[in-house]
Amino acid sequence: MPLSIVKQYSVFLVNEPGTLKNVAEILMREKVNIIALSQGVHYDAATFRLAVTHDQEISHILTRAGFTSVKTEAICIETKDRPGLILDISSVLTKHNINIAAIYGSATSDGQSRWIAIVNNITKALNALEESGMFN
To answer: What is 7-72's CATH number, 1.10.1740.110, 3.30.2130.10, 3.40.50.720, 3.40.605.10?
Structure first.
């Protein structure tokens, strides 16, 4: 399915060697399948964003391990990679007055791509993207 709703967790970490490794070990032990991730560093703190399928709930795992996190619903866009894809996605959302708070993703060597978008109105964004015909 090219468009779906997933859960994104923003996990707040201390910016020091081994912190990301510790989170990764916990998630691996709990068999969490990360479908996308991004990390941003701001001085002595880092925000590790990870997306998992919508049916996977990991708040309790992160809390039990002592991490502070925020769960958000996001749009997962899986499609053929091509030049201009992000322009097309952002143009559709802009046309419908939908703000993109964050977007991250990647393309694969076999020509596919996966993007995670956090928007201010997920239902309206999904409808706009589906109606655009871009993913048919």
So the answer is: 3.30.2130.10
For residue 77, report the phi and psi dihedrals to the nearest 5 degrees: -115, 115
- Per-residue model confidence (pLDDT) at position 136: 63
Q: Are 40 and 104 in contact (CB under 8 A)?
A: no
Q: Which pLDDT value is given to residue 1?
A: 57
Q: HEC string of the chain?
A: CCEEEEEEEEEEEECCCCHHHHHHHHHHHCCCCCCEEEEEEECCEEEEEEEEECCCCCHHHHHHCCCEEEEEEEEEEEEECCCCHHHHHHHHHHHCCCCEEEEEEEECCCCEEEEEEEECCHHHHHHHHHHCCCCC
